[in-house]
Structure of Fibrinogen C-terminal domain-containing protein:
Amino acid sequence: MSRLSGAYYYVCIYRGYFSSYSGTAGDSLSSHNGYRFSTYDLDNDNSGSNCASTYHGAWWYTACHSSNLNGMYINGGSTSEYAKGAVWYHLHGHNYALMITEMKIRG
């Protein structure tokens, strides 16, 4: 893509590869292993719908997710908004929005 100013923008579609889980929150990431990153305007999931659009956040969706740290901000805690907040399923399920998340990637 380019703008009139001459600036160019691009997107690389990365596949997520997650291995060797360790921690106490439960593994809600390995089911997303090998999937391409999906956004509302670039649907790469295996669902009949667009998971990024439905759940308000870009992520390595399968059909659709057991985690989504890019979900919309909902004031934390239990919610009636099924899986639309920042979700880590194995910690509290889909009807619980995390208030703060942090993701660290090591190469």
